[in-house]
Amino acid sequence: MLLHIHPDNPNSRHIKTVVDCLLSGGIIIYPTDTIYGLGCDIFQPKAVERIARIKQIDPSKAQLSFICNDLSNLSKYCKATDTPLYRLLKHYLPGPYTFILPASKLVPKILQNKKSTIGLRIPANNIASTIVAELGHPILSASLPGDMVEEYTDPDIMYENFKNQVDIVIHGGNGGMIPSTVVDCTKEPYELIRLGAGEWETG
Q1: Are 194 and 182 in contact (CB under 8 A)?
Q2: pTM above 0.85, yes or no
Q3: Between the N and C ends of the chain, which has fewer C-beta atoms within 10 Å?
Q4: Domain 2-194: what homologous superfamily?
C-alpha cells in the first residue's frame, strides 16, 4: 500500500493504519529528517527477521537504530546515561543524528548484538514522531538498500521497488539524500563514526 500522509499535519486515521500494521508484524517504509527508512515494531521478531532478509544481514550484526519520539525511552532501552551525556543528547535531538549507546536488558533478544549497543534516533520529522508516539514504544529503523539516489528519496519509486516486500510505503514528500550523523557514545572521548546531515564538532 502507498499511503500519502501530510508531512506537517498527519491524518490520525492514516497514522492508526500504520500503527495497526506495525502491531500486527508489518514492515513500513517511512520518512525521517534525513533519508527514508525501513521500519518495524521492535517487539515483532518476525518483522525484524523480514527486515534482515531485505537487507541480507544477520539481525544481531546489523546496524539498526531505535526511532523514539523523545528521550523518555532512554532509561528503558539504554543503560544509565550520565548527566553530561544526557545534556548532549538533549542538545542535538530531535535532529539528524544517531547516537550509539549501551543497550539495556529490555532490548529484545533478537536485537542484542555482541557489542550490547543500540543506535538512538529522534528524527525531527512529524510523521515519524507521531507514529512512534501513537505506537507507545520505539520502532526499529534500517536504511534502504539501493544504489541510485532515486531509490531512497522518491516514495513512488520505493513503492515500485519494495511493494512486494513491505506492507506500507508512506509518501510524505521526497526524502533527503544524506543519512544521519553517527556518534559512538559508548566510550570517551565520543567517536564520530559517520559525518552525515548533522554538524558535529569534535574536541
Answers
A1: yes
A2: yes
A3: C
A4: DHBP synthase (3.90.870.10)
